[in-house]
C-alpha cells in the first residue's frame, strides 16, 4: 500500500508540473520575468513577406498547334518545283509545290486566243448592228460565243490553280515527304503545316471541378523540355459534354508561343489557378504547434532589449516552403525564422542574422555586422 501511494503521489506531481509548463508556454508574457534572468539567445530573424497564393487544380495536357493541316495535292501529276525546306516558316498563300502543267498551259493559250477572236467578232457585229447591216440575232450569237470562250479560259485557269499547292495560313512546314519529279495523288502527304504562334493545350479534369473552372481563368504549364520554366495562359473553352466513361471534361487553354519553343504533341503539366490573392507568408521552419494551435515568434523591441513574443496564427495554403497566413500576422513584421525550438515566450534574444524571404522560402542571410551569407 505504501508503494502504491508513493507512485500515485509521484504521478500527480508529474502531471501538475506538465500542466504548469504548458500553461506558462501558452500565456503571453508568462515567462517574461523568468526570461529576464536567463542568458540572451542569438536568433535569425526575417521580415514577413507578402506572397501570391491561389487554389490550384492540376492535370496533364497535350499541346496542339493553333492551326494544323496536312498539305496535299488536289490532282494527280508529277512535281515540277518545290519551293520550301523542312522547318521553314512560310507566309499565308506562299507557293509550296508546283505540279507539271504543260498540257493545261497549252490549253489556256488556245482558250485565250479563242476568247480574243470572239471579242473581235462581237465588236464587228456591234458595228454592223449600228449600221443595220445584220439582224439582232447575229449579235446574240456573237455574245454567246464570247461568254463560252471566257468560261473555257476560267475553267483551264482553275485546273492550273489546282496544280499549285499553297500554304493556307502562315506557319512552320514540317518534314518534306516528296521529291522533285515524284508522282503525287490527292490525299498523298506533301508536308504538314503548323501555326505554333499560339499553343492550344487540351487537358481533362474530373466533372466535380466544373464549378470551379471557367473561361478566362489563368493556367500555368510546365514541360520536361524546359525544367523549372512556367508557361502561362488562360482557359479559352470548356467542352460541351462530359465523357460518360471517365466522367471528365476536356478543357482547352491557350498559351502564347511567339518564340516557337513549344511544339505540338508535347506533354505538359497544367495548374489551373483560381482565387489568386496576396497574403503574408512564413517558412515552415518558423512554425511551432501545440494541440490544434500554430504559433510563430515575433521579435519586439522593448526598453529592456529584444523580446520574443509567441503569437497564434491561422494558416492557409502552402507554396513551396512558404505557408500562407490568413490571420495573426501582417507583412513586414519580424519573426524568428530559425531555431524556434530553443525559444520561449518572453525570452530575451539578440539578432545575429537577418534573413530575406521570397516566394519559395529563405533566399539569403545577412549577418548583423552587414556581411552577406548565402543559404
Characterise the protein shown here.
It comes from Maricaulis maris. Keywords: Coiled coil. Residues 281-351 form the YknX-like C-terminal permuted SH3-like domain. The chain is of the alpha+beta class. Among the domains are: 35-53 and 278-374, conserved putative lor/sdh protein from methanococcus maripaludis s2 fold (Beta Barrel); 101-162, Helix Hairpins. Helix content is 23%, strand content 45%. It contains 4 helices and 21 strands. The protein has helices at 2-26, 32-36, 102-130, 136-162, and strands at 41-47, 50-72, 77-82, 89-90, 95-99, 164-166, 171-173, 183-184, 189-206, 218-222, 231-238, 248-256, 267-283, 288-290, 293-302, 305-319, 322-327, 334-338, 348-358, 361-367, 372-374. The strands form 2 sheets. A 6-stranded antiparallel β-barrel has the order 2-9-12-11-10-13. It has a 4-stranded antiparallel β-sheet with strand order 6-5-3-8. Helix 3 (102-130) packs antiparallel against helix 4 (136-162). The radius of gyration is 40 Å and the shape is rod-shaped. Mean pLDDT is 83; it is low at 27-36 and 366-375.
